[in-house]
């Protein structure tokens, strides 16, 4: 049994636009189809309320609807802090591990702005082939430093570090003929703002991103027909990412390697027997690699085989 990042999330990347679904979404659908071919049942919109236990072992889950589902193994792709502090009975893991889980750092600082465009934007000195990759707006080290400094003090940089993609160049089927979509990742937009809140800053961030991109793609704003802004607060609310952190836990040295997510729980067995962690909060961390899941699967299969021989 696998617990995903959030109820209703069918495997697409956190913050993925509803304007168009492709890229990571298409990958997720391919993985889902492969799982179904081996007999897996996938349910979306089924919110997990808690992990059930018996004799200090995970035995399944209870849904928000009250339905209980038994399982030989419960595998969580939710972030480790949410898994231990929200889904598991604190009596089962004890006060010390729960305290350690609450101290997992999840300072989300990434937002996402998705744009529907009436045509392909013209970036100076770049043709369609160059635009098929990742477009990084980071003119200098000083630019990055200023952007990060702003976030340290709870502010949004007026010159943000941006990473944009135009997936419709590689897959035109993602939008009506002649139109495009652009997905822009905005780094260093703090979850907790020093002044105001994200409800009031959402549109300003969208305007800032379009303005910043337009310096390199003149006329971009005239092409925008729709816009969706996903803030760190949205990532927590809609996708269950504690603190809005897309990697589930800060990938710093004290939360990496044998210390990810916490020391003593880095081998995918998590908190109590029968419960496993397989998402970005597990070693080796986030990114579209599949490594945490593949590593967790090996440990789960090994444990199930051992139990089967008893």
Describe this structure in words.
- The chain has 10 helices and 11 strands.
- It is an alpha+beta fold and 310 residues long.
- It has 2 domains: 47-105 and 245-308, FAD/NAD(P)-binding domain; 110-239.
- The strands form 3 sheets. It has a 5-stranded antiparallel beta sheet with strand order 7-8-9-6-10. A 3-stranded parallel beta sheet has the order 1-5-11, with helices on one face. Strands 2-3-4 form a 3-stranded antiparallel beta sheet, with no helix packed on it.
- α2 (80-87) packs antiparallel against α3 (90-102).
- Residues 6-22 have low confidence and may be disordered.
Q: What's the assembly state of these chains? A: single chain
Count of individual helical segments: 10
Q: What percent of residues adopt helix (DSSP H or I)?
A: 25-40%
Flag low-confidence runs: 6-22
Q: Please list the strands of the largest sheet in the order they lie side by side.
A: 7-8-9-6-10
Structural class: alpha+beta
Question: How large a portion of the residues is in β-strands, by DSSP E?
Answer: 15-25%
The total tally of domains equals 2
Distance between the termini: 22 Å
How much is the radius of gyration in Å? Answer: 21 Å
């Amino acid at each position: 049994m696998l617990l995903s990042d959030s109820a209703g999330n069918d495997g697409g990347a956190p913050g993925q636009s509803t304007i168009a679904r492709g890229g990571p979404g298409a990958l997720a659908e391919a993985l889902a189809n492969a799982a179904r071919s081996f007999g897996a049942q996938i349910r979306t919109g089924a919110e997990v309320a808690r992990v059930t236990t018996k004799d200090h072992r995970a035995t399944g889950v209870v849904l928000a609807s009250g339905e209980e589902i038994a399982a030989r193994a419960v595998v969580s792709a939710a972030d480790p802090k949410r898994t231990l502090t929200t889904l598991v009975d604190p009596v089962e893991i004890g006060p010390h591990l729960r305290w350690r889980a609450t101290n997992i750092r999840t300072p989300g600082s990434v937002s996402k702005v998705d744009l529907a465009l009436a045509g392909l934007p013209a970036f100076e000195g770049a043709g369609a082939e160059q635009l098929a990759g990742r477009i990084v707006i980071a003119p200098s080290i000083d630019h990055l430093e200023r952007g990060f400094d702003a976030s340290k003090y709870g502010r949004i940089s007026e010159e943000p570090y941006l990473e944009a993609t135009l997936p419709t160049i590689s897959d035109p089927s993602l939008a009506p003929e002649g139109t495009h979509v652009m997905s822009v990742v905005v780094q260093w937009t703090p979850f907790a703002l020093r002044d105001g809140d994200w409800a009031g800053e959402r549109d300003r961030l969208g305007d800032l991103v379009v303005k910043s991109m337009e310096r390199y793609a003149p006329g971009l704003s005239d092409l925008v027909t729709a816009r969706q802004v996903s803030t760190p607060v949205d990532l927590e609310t809609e996708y269950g990412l504690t603190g809005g952190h897309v990697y589930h836990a800060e990938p710093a040295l004290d939360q990496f390697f044998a210390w990810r997510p916490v020391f003593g729980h880095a081998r995918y067995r998590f908190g109590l027997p029968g419960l496993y962690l397989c998402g970005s909060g597990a070693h080796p961390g986030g990114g579209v690699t599949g490594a945490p899941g593949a590593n967790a699967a090996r440990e789960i299969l090994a444990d199930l085989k051992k139990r089967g021989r008893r």
